[in-house]
Amino acid sequence: MSENESGRSRAVFNRLLELAGETRRVVPAGPTGVVVRVFSVIAVFLIGWLALFGVVTQHHQVALFLVLLLPIAFLTTTSTSQAERLTLLDIALAALGFAASGWFALHANRFDNWVTGFSSLSPGDTIAGIVLFVLCIELCRRSVGIGLTAILFVLLAYVAFGQYIGGPFSHAGVTFDYFLEMQVVGTDGIFGAPLYVAASYAFLFV
Q1: What are the pLDDT digits (tens) for 12-26?
Q2: CA torsion sign, 169 to 158 to 149 to 35?
Q3: 3-state secondary structure at position 198
Q4: Which 8-state DSSP code applies to residue 186?
Q5: How many other CB atoms are found less than 10 A from the CB of residue 89?
Q6: For residues 177 and 192, what is the distance between their CA atoms, to the nearest angstrom?
Q7: Stated pTM of the model
Q8: In the 8-state DSSP scheme, what is residue 25?
């Protein structure tokens, strides 16, 4: 490989890292800024009330937390490190985050009474669950960069293809519905203890 080709390869690689790495934080103005401020004020009062006086379940409280925080997160971070302002993509992702987490908040009673092995995901659950899962991965990339996000992709690949690995690291295989149920219905995934703590006591000290 010539020196010029090597230089071009490094430039392309660096460009990909810039596009996929940690992004910028912005303070939105105009209508977007109003939305962020309104959601932030609602979050302060709602999460504060739930933490002190609420009697909702963990799944329901995290869902309400995500309804407010996902739009705020996408409206205060850019899609790439080179972008200096929000784009239509960021606004669309914020709207999707609001809709997907809103689905789980609106159907909280059904998820609170979920019985693994007997209850099954509806088409709406599947769509909302996939959207929510993908948005959480995208927020991970925006917040901490491609390093930890790449580790996440490696672990997801292990879940999907680990049954084909021989030896002690092989597993019996996981169906897509079961995996999605673990991530968005039970408390072992997105609605688990870390976000629950963030949606209750930790939020009060921020």
Answers
A1: 656 566 656 677 889
A2: negative
A3: helix
A4: S
A5: 13
A6: 18
A7: 0.86
A8: B
